[in-house]
Each structure stands twice: as C-alpha cells, then as structure tokens.
Amino acid sequence: MKLKNKLISNFTLTLLMTFSLATSAVDYSEFATMPGSANDGLSFDLEGNLFVSHINGDLSGSKIYKVAVGGEISIAVSDLSGPLGTDFDSQGNLYVANYNSGVITKITPGGEQSRFSNLIDVNGIVINDQDELFVTSYNASVVYKVAPSGEYEIWLQGNGLNAPVGIALDENDNIYVGNYENGRIFKIDSAKTVTELGSSPDSYGNAYIAYANGMVYATGINSNKIYTVPVDGGAVAELDGSGAAGFSFPNDIVANEDGTKLYVSNFNNNKIIVIENLNEVSSTPTPTPAPTPAPTPESKKSSSGGAIGYSLLLILFRVFRKSSKKL
C-alpha cells in the first residue's frame, strides 16, 4: 500500500510538472515608453543600456535615446540625419547609420562625435569581434564591409539581395541578412557562401532581424507579428502570441547579451516591447511563400501546446495504470 501511495504521489507531481511545461508560453510586456513613435534601430552598450534611434515618420529624425538599466530615458546623440541601425564595437564606441546622408557616425564613450565612413543609403549595422562593420543598403541592394580605419568595400551583392535592411551576426561570425521587400533571409558564412534560410510570411516583407541561440527572429511589418527562422533550415514559424502582443509596425529587434530576451521597437507607437521565455516557445509553422509573394491571410495562433500536454498526460496515465495493476 505504501508503494502504491508513493506511486500515486509521484504520478500527481509528474502531472503537475507536465501540465506546467505544456501550458507555459512566451511572455510579452512593455519595457519602455519612448517620447514619440517612429522608433527604429536598437542596440545595447557594454553596460546593458538600450539605445533607440528616432527617425520620425518622414525620416527627418535626428536623435538617439538612451534607456538606462534603471529605466531613465535621455537623449544620447543628436544632430544626426535619419538615424537607423546602430551597434557598438569592443571599445564601447557607438556607430550610427544615417539614411539620408549615407554617413556612418561614430560616437566615443566620452560623447565625441565624428564622421567615420561615407556610404550610400545605409540601414542596418552589425559589428564583429574584429570591430569590422557590416552595413546593409536598401537602395543599393548590397552589404558593405567597413574596416576599423573607416575604409569600405562592397562585401556582398546579387545572390538574391533585394532592399536588404536587417542584419545580424552569430557566435561563429556567420552573417544573416533580411530583405525588406520580399522577406527572404540569407545566411552568409566566412567564405561568403550564401544560403537562403526561408522567407518571412509577412505580406510585404520584414524590417529587421536578430539572432539568438540558433534562431533568427524577423519582424513582420504588415502582420504585426514576429517570425522564427531556424538557422539549420527548419520551417519558418510565427512566434506564439506575437500577433496579440501589441506590435504596430514592429521595426528593429535585438537580443540581450545571453539571448534570453528580445526587444522590439515599433514605428506606429512609442512602445519598446520585451519578449521573454524564449526557451519555452510554441511556434506556429507557416508556409514559406515564393520569393515575390502575394498578400496572404494571417496565420492563426497555435494551440499545439494544449494538444501536446494532453498527449503526455494520456501516456503518463497509461503507465500509471499498468504499474498499479502489478501491485
């Protein structure tokens, strides 16, 4: 009898743990309320402060805001010309892509501001461990590589690039680039071998992308959703719950240092939204459209977590009954 009671107790605990895991979901919450809408590029400095580009609706913006770890918001940089993508190098210098002028502005930790490089219609920026910049150009449909000296070259063109904006880097120095116009997302290794991972199902395309722990995340500007793109070639999917998270033209997306959280700016409102519990995500697989897709209906939110939980409970119950009959 004691053994049977112990079995019942263990079974009950297992049921509770299984139900908890099966029903847990990614969390969305408001991280910061910015002074206005039309926010764009996001990046973290070495101390964990978040920097937010403000572009205005007509790309006439000139400021970058700093959201301190404690939540205080202040103007970090001004006198820019349509600031979009930003990133920090290993020395804590901030680099800003000015869309209107094509200038990459460098701001030192002490606040000294200078012209670092002059390109064409620059958008996204990512910086590797060698402090080399990789910069997308929407209008030129190229990716530039800029040396620490400021000298630049066209690093990638063709290969399916079509108005690239989003750009990200993983721990192995692979570069990921997303097309704004058709949503196609590419992986480029150090030998410049280009692999298409998939396409954002958004009816227009994607604004920016981020990389975290084996996954690329893309913002769907028309669907107001976030999409997951596995780097191993798995199916593109909708991040569970993102359609009801309050996004309004989700713009840039960036991961924190350990990749456990994502932060998203919005063009049509003044919210910075944080996404947590990424390790407990349930995603809805979404058919990948053709390279030039027509508008498609929005995908329904997944309910697979409940189905998985029920299946696990049924299996555990059968094991329990079989064990009980032996007692």
Inertia-based shape: globular
Oligomer: single chain
- Count of beta strands: 25
What is the name of the CATH class? Mainly Beta
Strand content: 35-45%
Helix content: 10-25%
Describe this structure in words.
There is one protein chain. With 327 residues, the protein is mainly β. It has one domain (29-298): Neuraminidase, CATH 2.120.10. It contains 2 helices and 25 strands. Strand 4 and strand 5 (73-77) form a beta hairpin.
Short description:
The protein has two helices and 25 strands. By secondary structure, the protein is mostly beta strands. The strands form six sheets. The chain has a five-stranded antiparallel beta sheet with strand order 18-19-20-21-25, with no helix packed on it. Strands 1-24-23-22 form a four-stranded antiparallel beta sheet, with no helix packed on it.
Secondary-structure map:
Blueprint: H1 2-23, E1 27-33, E2 39-44, E3 50-54, E4 63-67, E5 73-77, E6 83-88, E7 94-98, E8 103-107, E9 113-118, E10 122-127, E11 133-137, E12 142-146, E13 152-157, E14 164-169, E15 175-179, E16 184-188, E17 194-199, E18 206-212, E19 215-220, E20 225-230, E21 237-239, E22 250-255, E23 262-266, E24 271-276, E25 283-285, H2 304-325
Antiparallel strand pairs: 1-24, 2-3, 3-4, 4-5, 6-7, 7-8, 8-9, 10-11, 11-12, 12-13, 14-15, 15-16, 16-17, 18-19, 19-20, 20-21, 21-25, 22-23, 23-24
